[in-house]
Amino acid sequence: MTLSRSDDTTLIKIGLRSDLPAPGTVKEFFAAGRFLCLANVEGIVYATNNVCPHWGGPLGQGKIINGKIVCPWHNWEFDPRTGETRRKLNARLTMHRVIVDGEDVLIEFRDET
Ligand code: FES
Questions:
Q1: Contact at 8 Å (CB) between 61 and 28?
Q2: Angle at alpha carbon of residue 13, lines to 11 and 18, rounded to 5°
Q3: CA distance 14 to 63
Q4: Alpha-carbon separation of residue 56 from 27, 71, 74, 75, 91 (angstroms)
Q5: Which domain holds residue 84?
Q6: Phi–psi pair at 99, nearest 5 degrees
Q7: Can you give the CATH number for the domain in which 8 is found?
Q8: Nearest atom within ligand 1 for CA of residue 57
Q9: How far is the CA of 2 from the centre of ligand 1 (A)?
Q10: Mean pLDDT across the chain, nearest whole number?
Q11: Burial class (CB in 10 A: 0-12, 13-18, 19+), 109
């Protein structure tokens, strides 16, 4: 299911509530032609692009440690609320809003034109 909206965003269904990562874990999803990392940090689910800005590690195969998304390759840590890392200024993950609508999980993508 894909819904284009008038505010330059698109909603894409990526799965069901039961597909979401358990608290304290991350999981990879594929949607809109790309892999995403969904991270459940203390019961709040965040979505980001899955490619680490360091050397491209798959963030959805990483971990949550002390409330941060940790890349599995070299342990860079990212704030799930902002996508920022303390390792490198201006290296930031692209974050996407997660919407749970009943049993459906949708991700909001900002249109890239
Ligand atoms: S590739 Fe992610 S920390 Fe190096």
A1: yes
A2: 140
A3: 21
A4: 16, 9, 10, 12, 12
A5: 2-110
A6: -120, 125
A7: 2.102.10.10
A8: 1
A9: 31
A10: 93
A11: buried
pLDDT, position 6: 65
Q: Quick one: tokens of 104?
A: 């459906």
Q: Among 52, 68, 92, which residue has the most ligand 1 atoms within 8 Å of its CB, making it the best to mutate?
A: 52
Task: Report pTM.
Answer: 0.90
Q: What are phi and psi of 58, to 5 degrees?
A: -85, 100
Question: 47 exposed, middle or buried (CB, 10 Å; 0-12, 13-18, 19+)?
Answer: buried
Q: What is the per-residue pLDDT for 113? A: 44
Phi, psi of 109 (to 5 degrees): -105, 135
Work out how many domains the chain is built from and give that number.
1
Per-residue buried b or exposed e for 52-77, using 16+ beta carbons within 10 Å of the residue's own CB: bbeeebbbbebbbeeebbbbeeeebb
